[in-house]
Amino acid sequence: MKQHKLELEPSDYLSDDDDNEVVMREYQPLTNYYKRRHLFESRERCGVKKYLKELKVSAGGGGSGIGIIKPDALLPNEIINYVEDGDVGEAAELQWKAMVEDIKQQQQKQGEGLGKFKNWLVVGRIPNNFAVCLRFLMSELSEEPWKGKFIGGKHQPEWIQGDHDLKSKCEFLRKSDDFGLLKAIDLILELGVNANLNLKAEHMIKKVIVFRLLNPDDRIHWQWCSWDWCYEKLVREVEAIRSKYKEKGYGDDAVPHILFWDVCGNRRIPHSWICTQDPGFTRLSGFSDHLVKSFLDNGGEIGPHHLMEAAIADKEYQALAVVD
């Protein structure tokens, strides 16, 4: 196979001018690639809907779709994209249930990959449907008292018992406010030290995923602000969490690991692919279906090598050679 050398001109990099038009011009090579990806994604979505239509026909024939359902056929965010679709919404609900049951079986076997998810919580903004579906998936895979619960509500955060269909939960969550990480921690501790529960460290929430939506101006700020300042800000937040746990009588073994996941809200601007791992927290920036699959296949474990593999997983990159 013929190999091609990937070379970037100086104009391929982000300038320090924060004007959006300048940003778009400087990012034009990568932006063109992302526009092509949107076309491919549209074709892929057609394949997802075709599968769900076949599932709908099977379920309509009285077989409940059991014979055709492949639990791992779709990613969670692909399922949730169609849960409110008037044509295949019910089929999406069936696919979701099959996927969750398959993951639970992996958990019972204490297997690798998805079987590792247990007692995780997702909070923060809603930059995309993956942030929505991951909330529900983590809640359904958790043990009591976290099982089926996610944080929502208006004005004041509260635990929501999500014993409803996926469509209803999506509608409710989109009406909820974003209360931030520290208020979520307060709710975790409130439930954990409940007089009737008094949970031990091993039964507390293990990991909290915090989705953060970046608009283009935010993205430029994060690109160019002092890395030390960003790091110190997150360290202070994690230290505040440790203090809250200590006040309630818990040690560091009960403190959840925090994954800060930054997602750019403007699809026209390419993501910055960043992953740093520090004591108590991980910072991740970037998003693609390849990254979602890697995240799920590895039981939520994410590192720089996973990020690199996801970033170059598209077919367009396979003919490129890395040169030093």
Question: How far is the N terminus from the C terminus?
Answer: 20 Å
Total DSSP E strands: 9
Q: What does the main sheet amount to?
A: 5 strands, mixed
Low-confidence stretches: 1-43, 219-226
Helix segment count? 11
Query: SS-based structural class?
Result: alpha/beta
Helix content: 40-55%
Q: Give the CA-based shape.
A: globular
Helix and strand succession? EHHHHEHEEHHEHHEEEHHE
* Strand percent estimate: 5-15%
Tally of individual domains: 1
User: Radius of gyration from the CA trace?
Assistant: 21 Å
Strand order across the largest sheet: 2-5-6-8-7
Overall pLDDT: 78
3D architecture notes:
InterPro entries: DUF7788 (IPR056690), UCP015417_vWA (IPR011205). It comes from Prunus yedoensis var. nudiflora. This is DUF7788 domain-containing protein. Residues 126-302 form the DUF7788 domain. This protein has helices at residues 20-26, 28-63, 76-80, 89-108, 129-141, 166-174, 181-192, 216-224, 227-247, 289-297, 304-311, and strands at 4-5, 120-124, 149-152, 158-161, 207-214, 257-264, 274-278, 281-285, 320-321. The strands form three sheets. Strands 2-5-6-8-7 form a five-stranded mixed sheet. The chain has a two-stranded parallel ribbon with strand order 1-9. The protein is built from eleven helices and nine strands. Residues 1-43 and 219-226 have low confidence and may be disordered. By secondary structure, the protein is an alpha/beta fold. It has one domain (4-321). The longest helix has 36 residues, at 28-63.
